[in-house]
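Late entry, evening session. Most of the bench is empty. Finally got around to the prediction I had been postponing all week. Sequence below, unchanged from the version circulated by S.P.
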Amino acid sequence: MTTPRVSVLIGAYDNAATLHRAIDSILHQTVRDLELLLIDDGSRDETPAVIAAAAARDARVQALTMPRNVGISRSLNAGLHAARAPVVAVQDADDHSESGRLERQLALLDARPEVAVVGSRMHEVDVDGRALAPRTSFRAGDVNDVLLRFNPIPNTSAAFRRELALALGGYDPRYRYAMEYDLWLRIADEHVVAALDEPLSTRVMSATNVAARADRAQTAEALAIRARTLRRRRSSARGGGGSVRRRRAESALTGRARPRTPRRRPPASAPRRTASARARGQQRRGARARPGPEQARRVRPRAR
C-alpha cells in the first residue's frame, strides 16, 4: 500500500445531517492522492451509516470507531496514530473546504520545511449559507508573534506535519474547545506556524458548531492555555524542562537527532588539608616572621 500525500481527519459526533457535504468536499480535492479518516466518536444518530456508505463507495475512505464518546481531542489523536501520510489536515464534520485547499497547503509545506502548521482564511456562514462577519481575528503569513494574543488557525482550516505533532503528544485531552490552540503554541516553541491569505475553508455557525455554542468555555480555555505557555517558555528560558520533548520534535521534523550539549562538570575542589598539615604551615610562617640572631643584633636600641 503506497503512502498518500496527505491524511484528512474528520471527527464526528451526531453529525449525520452535515457529514455528507464535509466528506464530498474532501473527496473532490484537486489533490487526489489522499486518505480520509472518518472517526465516529460514539454517535447516536445515523453517523455510522453515513461513514460506512462513504467507505463503501471510495477506497480512500477509512472508518475509525471509538468505543464510546471520548471527546474530540482523543478521537483526533486516534486518527493521528492511524494516519499514514506525513501531513495531516483536519476538517470539522459540519464544515467544508474549497477544492484547492489541500493543494495550496501542501505547496507551502513543500516549499518551506521550517513551517510545521499552515492554516488559511475562512468563510463563516449560517445554516442557510448566508455570509457572516468573522468572529475571530486573522493574520496572514508567519503568525508565531501573534499566537499568544489570538489563534488565527482554527482546527478545521489546518494542515500540519504528523510526526512532529505526535512527538509533542498530539492534542491535549484536558482541553475540549481550544485543543488546537494549545498544540499550535507548543509547536511554535521551536517551529514556524503560518497562514495563507486565501479563504480555503468554510465554517458553518450552527447549534452543533463548538465555536458557536461554547464561546465562553472556549475563551476560558484559551486564557488558561496562554498562561501555561508563558510558564513553559519562562521555565525553558531558565534552562528548565522541555528539552527532551523539543529534541524529539526537532528529530521528527528534520530526520536528525539534535546533538546534546555536553554537561559541564564542576572543577575538582582542592584536597582538604589535615590538622597536622595546617600546624606545619603555621610553624613555617612563624619561623619566617621571627628575626634570627644576626637580625636581632642589628636592631637599634629604642631612644630614651
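Two things to note before I forget:
The chain has one domain: 6-254.
The mean pLDDT is 86.
Will write this up properly tomorrow.
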